[in-house]
Q: What sequence folds into this?
């Protein structure tokens, strides 16, 4: 967000006065109600947009849960924070050397006085950790009924400002929130590299959704999920492929070929995660299940493990194949069965075989898969 305009000459003293509280932004604000224009430092501004804030949060909440909606808002406002680089450069030019935390405090003071951000108090500043507090933020008031840490606007803003001025990646966590019943909103920002592993683990834990990391460049014909190229394809590719194979080799062999191919894909997928630094077998399996689920392949209802029989049972609400085929009176999920089996085999380094025992296409409520040890690794 640009809060400075080259047509308005701001001096070092002006910013210092705002920082030390001897002046406030009203000295630099112009309200022209007839024209519907309010400016601060010559730049258009507006105040207290409760409706806008609520609408943004609720838009994300429609497709995510509340925790992930807060994250999505943070991501949006990260870009806003990144825009503060212009002001930072101006201050440097004016000979005003502020530390990243001091600059953050200035940005929020300016915003707060225009009716937006909260006035942040600096609690602790180290090279790689900054802690800030405020009595309340506007989003903690607007979203009070969510009863959880909701200040994604401030979180994203803080991350963006710090990333812009330090050139390094910052990750901010809201550790206390008025909307969560705490006595203040507290933000802990850490400077750390956002590696593939770190992002993928956050998705697996449910702290992020894959949408946060989809780099969609439709005009270039490219999509990346974190750093991996992915493609979108129509779901009917599953019926199309199966029907084509069935015509050339018959139904049972076609199912077997699909099972085998997707099993190899599941294994290769896990091998890729290993290469990216994930080693815990349970994390590897959960990561693959989570990614495929979030990519639209299925929704996991439950996973059970029978220790005595060494059988893993996976119940899915819908699979890409059962949705694609519809009701056929028989089981259709060969690709999914292969994929799940390959994931388990790759993650745990054991020889297993998988079978679909219930299928929505056959008329069952869910698609249920059993994965058990393959005798003698056959
Ligand atoms: Zn808060
Ligand atoms: Zn099925």
A:
């Amino acid at each position: 967000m640009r809060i400075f305009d080259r047509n308005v000459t701001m001096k070092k003293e002006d910013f210092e006065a705002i920082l030390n509280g001897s002046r406030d932004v009203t000295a630099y604000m112009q309200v022209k109600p007839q024209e519907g224009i309010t400016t601060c430092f010559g730049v258009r501004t507006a105040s207290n947009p409760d409706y806008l804030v609520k609408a943004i949060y609720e838009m994300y909440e429609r497709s995510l849960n509340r925790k992930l909606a807060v994250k999505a808002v943070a991501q949006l406002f990260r870009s806003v924070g990144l825009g503060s680089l212009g002001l930072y450069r101006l201050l440097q030019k004016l000979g005003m050397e502020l530390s990243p935390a001091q600059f953050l405090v200035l940005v929020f003071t300016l915003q707060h006085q225009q009716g937006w951000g909260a006035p942040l108090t600096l609690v602790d500043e180290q090279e790689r950790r900054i802690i800030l507090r405020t009595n309340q933020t506007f989003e903690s008031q607007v979203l009070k009924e969510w009863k959880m840490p909701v200040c994604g606007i401030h979180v994203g803003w803080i991350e963006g400002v710090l990333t812009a001025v330090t050139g390094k990646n910052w990750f901010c966590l809201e550790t206390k929130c008025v909307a969560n019943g705490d006595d203040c909103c507290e933000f802990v920002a850490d400077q750390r590299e956002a590696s593939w592993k770190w992002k993928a683990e956050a998705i697996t834990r449910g702290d992020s959704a894959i949408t946060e990391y989809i780099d969609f460049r439709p005009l270039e014909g490219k999509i990346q999920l974190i750093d991996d190229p992915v493609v979108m394809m129509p779901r009917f590719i599953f019926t199309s492929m199966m029907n084509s194979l069935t015509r050339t080799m018959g139904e049972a062999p076609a199912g077997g070929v699909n099972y085998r191919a997707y099993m190899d894909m599941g294994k290769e997928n896990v091998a890729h995660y290993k290469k990216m630094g994930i080693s815990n077998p349970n994390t590897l399996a959960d990561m693959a299940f989570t990614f495929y689920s979030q990519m639209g392949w299925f929704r996991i209802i439950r996973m059970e493990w029978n220790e005595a029989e060494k059988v893993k049972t996976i119940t899915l609400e819908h699979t890409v194949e059962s949705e694609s085929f519809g009701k056929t009176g028989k089981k259709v999920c060969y690709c999914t069965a292969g994929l799940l089996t390959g994931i388990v085999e790759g993650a745990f380094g054991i020889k297993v075989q998988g079978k679909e025992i219930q299928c929505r296409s056959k008329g069952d409520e869910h698609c249920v898969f059993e994965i058990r040890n393959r005798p003698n690794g056959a």
Summary: The pocket of zinc ion (ligand 2) is lined by residues 319, 322, 331-333, 356, 359-361, 367 (CB under 6 Å). The chain has 13 helices and 14 strands. The chain has two domains: 49-193, 237-377. The longest strand covers residues 298-306.
